[in-house]
Description:
Layout: E1 2-8, H1 13-26, E2 31-37, H2 42-48, E3 54-57, E4 60-63, H3 69-79
Parallel strand pairs: 1-2
Antiparallel strand pairs: 1-3, 3-4
Amino acid sequence: MIRVRLMERPECGLCDEAVVALRRLSRRTGLDVERIDVTRDPALLERYVVRVPVMVVGDAELDAAGIDDAAIERWLAEVGR
């Protein structure tokens, strides 16, 4: 099981797309997805507001805006070992 933290913010279409992609991928790969609203934490907001959506696994981060499922799946395979 790979634990993915998705940094997102409300009313973010790219964030919605990332959630859908993670749902599709979770059917094939064991994923535990935690959705984190960066607007609720000033430190996270400062770090991620212009970068969302960002997927985080351990210390690895992927700026996921506009990235297709295959690229996300390759990244997860690489960092989720």
